[in-house]
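User: Could you check the structure of this?
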Amino acid sequence: MVSNLSFTGNPELDKARMIEKILAFPFQIRKATEIAEESFQRINFSFQQVKNIVFVGMGGSGIAGEIIRNYLSKELRIPVFTNQDYTLPKFVGAETLFFINSYSGNTEETLTVYESIRHSGFKIIAISANGSLKEKAKEDKIPFISIPQGMPPRTALGYSFFIPLCILYRCGLITEKEGEIKETIEVLQRIKERFEREKENVAERTARLLRNRLPVIYSSADFSGVAIRLKQQLAENSKTLSIVNFLPEMNHNEIVGWQFPSLLKEFVVLFLRDREENERIVRRFEITKELIGKETERIVELYSEGEGLLARIFSLIYIGDFISYYLALLNGVDPTPVEKIDYLKAKLKEA
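Assistant: Sure, the predicted structure tokens are below.
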């Protein structure tokens, strides 16, 4: 892969080998299912009275909850809520299933939430590679799932998504997903091999278009987690600011804003598309493209791949990860460091 990337930018910028973590993502999914299977046997509470599910996590650890909500929205008969704050909503209680997810185990907001419920007797599953969350969960005898160390949290999405997913079907809250997971791994493997083989793949072409321009990401509401994930990856890997919104909601407000400023012509619009979109959403995309096309010629439609919904969701996520990597090299930056986050955390510790 590195030789194929060399003309795109300087691969030596990638000092921590982010590309290896991206390429290993299909394997990570397989490993996550193995960890989930072994860990499920150690969960010491019943799932019978679960009435809602709350995912607690921030950033790369937190996005899994939004993607799971998208994926299971047409199947789960109980609500899924993603909590990205210091406090919990009032509806939670003994009938809530909590997934407390912090890759480092030291995320301030996540630990604050955990502290508020650690002695409550609630149904809690903690997921981390290390840190205070691991120590506290083991001290409290709360089911703890250990995941491999040594990677940026955003590259551990295979663990933060597929471990909870496997637990949800093993406990009977959703139907089994082994076939869909298998297809997802196969689809991602094909994308990986295609990008290694093709010198002008869609991810690289998109990254070239994005260089020194503002990305505007639009998806259907059903793929909101995919769009947010791409925004996060562009920020952390590419050090690039972007805008994200969803159809049909943006048709009721944001579409009117496509008039000013004059810099609109320098924006690049990314439509994240899926072949199973509602027919009215398809029409809305068509009209939205027509309206926006009057202000910028730079519109890219990225389509999901695969048959099952899980594969289609993760195909777009995976393509987005590659886009963010290519763009980092084009921007002349190392995709791994997140210096502004590190600075912010250090200043918070001083308070």
